[in-house]
Design goal:
mainly alpha; two-stranded antiparallel sheet; 5 helices; binds zinc ion
Length: about 100
C-alpha cells in the first residue's frame, strides 16, 4: 500500500462507495476505495471479483505491493449500483423515521 493510499485508508470517515459513515473499514479488491463492510460484502459477489482477486494475488506474488487493482468493469458497477439500491430500500423499510428525517 502506498503512503497516500494508506493515509486515505486510515483517514477516511465515510465509505468511498456508498458514503455511509465508517465503523469498520476494508480496502476494495478492484481499486483503492476504502469500503464499509456492507459494500465489501456486495463487492465479493461482483461478477468480476474472482478475476480482481486473482490479479491482486498475482501482483503481490510478483513483488508489486502497490497494485492499484484491475478497476471496476461496467458490469461490476451496474451490479454494485443495484445492490446499493436494494440496501437503501431495506434500510428505509427498517428505519422509516430516519428516512423521513433526512427527506
Ligand atoms: Zn459502503
Amino acid at each position: 500500500m502506498s503512503k497516500h493510499t494508506q493515509d486515505h485508508f486510515f483517514a477516511a470517515k465515510t465509505c468511498d462507495r456508498c458514503g455511509d459513515p465508517l465503523r469498520a473499514r476494508t480496502m476494495s479488491k478492484f481499486n483503492r476505495d476504502t469500503l464499509c463492510m456492507a459494500c465489501k460484502q456486495a463487492e465479493r459477489e461482483c461478477p468480476g471479483y474472482i478475476d480482481a482477486d486473482d490479479a491482486e494475488v498475482a501482483a503481490v506474488r510478483g513483488g508489486d505491493y502497490n497494485f492499484p487493482g484491475v478497476g471496476l468493469t461496467a458490469r461490476d458497477r451496474e451490479f454494485l449500483a443495484l445492490r446499493l439500491a436494494e440496501r437503501r430500500a431495506r434500510d428505509a423499510q427498517a428505519h422509516p423515521e430516519a428516512d423521513a428525517a433526512s427527506a
